Amino acid sequence: MCGRYASSREPSDLVAEFEIEAGNVRESVEELGENYNVAPTNQVVAVVERKNREQPDETIRKLTTVKWGLVPSWAKDTSIGSRLINARMETVAEKPAFKKAFATRRCILPADGYYEWYTAEEKVNGKPVKQPYFIHPPDGSILSMAGLYEIWRDKSVEDPDKDEAWLWTCTVLTTSSTDDLGRIHDRMPLLVERERYDAWLDPLSSDTDDLLELLVPAAPGRLEAYAVSKAVSSVKNNGPHLLDPLPPDGEDPQDSPTTLF
């Protein structure tokens, strides 16, 4: 699964990467700022493409913010969102919680990289030692994670024209990890390569087979992993220091880590 990631890009970098017109960046994106320990229920940056109401055959690409943890439009309340932070590629086109969003509401969730925990055989006080790793593109490029988004109507807000009447949420699509990363965890986020941005985001396209073909796991060597401090395990901790690799001697302020690579 993908349960934590880092997101620190300037909105201007994302506008350039995803070819978004400046007027289509929501103010909430600028307000969000850097987050080196993105966790479920957080507001996150998302790239979405919506039909143009004035020109139904055209679409508008936007940079916006959504809450991580998908709430289907048919949900009675928002509590289900905490259980839907990930959607498995193998079943996303059939599961009721994701089927409709997969057909028409796909997004890209930009990240610097994501965290995953390797469970070691050794134990401390009877519990397995879990060592966090940061997994990212070694060239520093943006990690474009495939996502879905939903829009849920909050009926406690009577006026549908108010922003608060609509809750925007998202989930990250995952697949089996490639061999090199599978040693850390058996699942990983699916990526959308740059040449496939348009096809993935297009809300006018809904052919399941075509959409599934757009999604790819990271090619061998596309991502690298290194051990980081266990400080990232607590959502109370944040800041660029969470991305610092553990020193060669493996000394972690939080604990003594297990070395995998």
UniProtKB/TrEMBL annotation:
EC numbers on record: 3.4.-.-
Keywords: Covalent protein-DNA linkage, DNA damage, DNA-binding, Hydrolase, Lyase, Protease
Pfam families for the chain: SRAP
Region called Disordered, residue ranges: 237-261
Domain of life per record: Bacteria
Database matches in Gene3D superfamilies: SOS response associated peptidase-like
The keyword Protease belongs to this UniProt entry's keyword annotation: yes
Family statement drawn from the similarity comment of this UniProt entry: Belongs to the SOS response-associated peptidase family.
Protein name: Abasic site processing protein
Organism: Kribbella speibonae
